[in-house]
Amino acid sequence: MSLRTRFSLYCAAVLVTFSVILTLLVVVSAYYDARVSSQEAALAKAESASYEIRKLFSDGMFKLGELKTRWELSKPIRTFAEQELVDSFIQDKRFLGAWAIFEPNEFDGQDRVYATRKGSRPNGRFIPYFYRNLKNPDIINTIECMFYDNTDGSGDFYQVPKRTLNDFLGEPYLYPIDGEKVFMISLARPVIRAGKFVGVVGLDLKISDIEQELFSNWPFESGYIALLSPRGIYAAHSKKGILQGKNAGPISVRDSILKSLSTGQPFFHETAEGRSYVFPFHVGNYGQNWAIEVHVPDSILWNDLGPIILRSLLITFTLLPVCLFFIDRFFCKYVSEGISSASMFADSLGGGNYSVQIPDREFKDEIFHLFSALENMKEKLLRAIDQQIRSEKILQESAEIVARNEIIRLQKEELENTLGELRTAQETLLRNERLAAIGRISGAVSHQINNPLGAMNAARENISFYTLRIVSLLPILVEYLASADPEEKYAFDTTFQAILENTKETIGKKFRETRRAIEAFLREEEVEEAGDKAAVIAELGFLDCPKLVLHLCSSPEWERISEFFMAVRGLCVSEEVIHRSTDRMYKIVSALETYSGITREGAERLVKISDTVEAVLGVYEGAGGNRVTVERNYISDAMMRCVPEDLVRLWTQVVDNAYQAMSGEGKLRIHIFNIGTDVTCEVEDSGPGIPKSIREKVGEVLSSGKMEGVGAGIGLAVAASISKKYGGSWDWESEPGRTVFRFTFPRISQ
């Protein structure tokens, strides 16, 4: 087989292999791109649906919040209260009905008067349920609420708010209406007067209406979208309505979904037909998460990949023959003909014909250089023969030297490889130790930032609520102030100014004592409903009852005035919460910026030792909350010339060990002082101390007293090497409840 044929076959094999590999890479890339695209689309669909559901639930909770607030601050006439229940849902077709369940004689104290009224118990207990007629939604029917005293789960819509005094967003359940069992979800909020539970108000959502409005379309052709309750139960399903009220998949899948719901993080799981994405979401201050599940069938991905594979193969095998033809022409003209001439020239030299001349070539390429090399070989051949005999002896003598040198070279390479592996291992251990410390700081900082963020979010919702209340009350107050006498206006303005200036909250035991004292004062002044009014005055932040507030208590508009003051008070308190939370987050971020700024400095400069210690302490104090008390005793302001990052690394290792030893709770003391021409820094923690079993190995590489997997045993070794790098020394002492690491450096006086 000729060289030309072999070269053509080799090129063909290489091109085919490369084309197949390229096609596979394109297919794999397209597959993952399609997978990522489908995931993003599914999560976007889930997030959009969760927004609609969350908005629906939030609208219901807001309507209930208005009823709750009005009925907590006043005792309306039942006919007005029933009309308010109907008004809360009659204009919003998304809600099936509204209901209220109050404890006996707690709504208005007049149960016996309404003993025969529709929507009340025979004893007059206020338990009306207003709902849309299933056949004609414009007709509103009235019945008594049922099952509310049940403790088997069917009465959770009343029993849970009564027990917890918190909002409730119930699991989907069947409730009989007009002789039919309707699958629904109940939203409920407790009504509390003067700290006492009196009843519950609620709204019902018909799940079939939710499905028709939000889950009627099937995403991704044959996929589906579903609503999951906090217990992992299908509340709505766009494809299989029969799954309503059933568990979301096998036990293993349901356990994973429940775990995802508890953490609030998106989750996906594989099924026989494709992949399902679960997107949790939170509603108001209800303590459990709901979720949207979007299913993406695998057929979507393969339908997209088929045309891509076909086009890639078609292009590959169309261009392959063209490439092979041009490669063959090029090789024949520029390679094979020149090699044939070189072969004839070499044959002539091998036959002893040293008069042969180099053929002329158009290009001075590698073959031309091959001819030149053969010519040089011809000239040197005779000289080589003459030198061969003398060289044989020299070669014999040098063979041993070459062999020994080869052994030395191999040993040197082996030592260099071993040293390189040791350096790599050391760098890996050091990087892992630093990353572990940074990971612990990041996790703690994230936790500390989440707390003020949660407080700010709650304050934002409160501000929205109180703003709406103020806006709704302003027309009434304007009318009231326009007709009030000057003394009453002065009392209103002075009280309003006092509320704006006082943002401190009175809580706990002090609040209860204040409320009792004000109630006693009001009873002495013979003020009606002294208990309720005393609770409102205490909530407004007053430590006693001034005469101006007493004057307002006797006003016939006291309920509207107090409701307005409570809303203003809520705005002030919420603004103070946001202010404190912002300050807390600013301190944490400022400490991190200082820490990261110093760790990026790679050049030597004069640096104050206490500044590097403060950079590390700032981060750990921000991340650790207030469970670790840090005591600073900086007697010396000595400076030293070093790379700032080195000292930050040293203090990070020592302080991180101290925090881990104390399990994030205890006392940390930093003492910096001068001894002669040296400066000493002591880091003392109140942890359990260094175990006796490893005390002799403290500071050695791979020696650690932490649990397996927590530390690599390189932190103190790094600290010791940094101390030695700058001419310093270190030692330590330890006993239960007190461990001290002491570092000494030559100081430069400022």
In short:
The protein is 56% helix and 17% strand. With 750 residues, the chain is an alpha+beta fold.
Main attributes of the structure:
histidine kinase, phosphoprotein, Beta-Lactamase, 4 domains, transferase, 7-stranded antiparallel sheet, 750 residues, alpha+beta, 5-stranded antiparallel sheet, kinase
What class do helices, strands and sheet pairing give?
A: alpha+beta
Number of strands: 19
Query: What general form does the structure show?
Result: flat
Low-confidence region ranges: 707-712
Q: What do the pLDDT scores average to? A: 77
Helix content: 55-70%
Radius of gyration computed on alpha carbons: 42 Å
Tell me the strand percentage band: 15-25%
User: Major β-sheet, in short?
Assistant: 7 strands, antiparallel
Count of alpha and pi helical runs: 15
In whole angstroms, the N-to-C terminal distance is 86 Å
The structural domain count equals: 4
GO molecular function, one term: protein histidine kinase activity
Subcellular location: Membrane
Transmembrane segments: 7-32
Coiled coil: 405-432
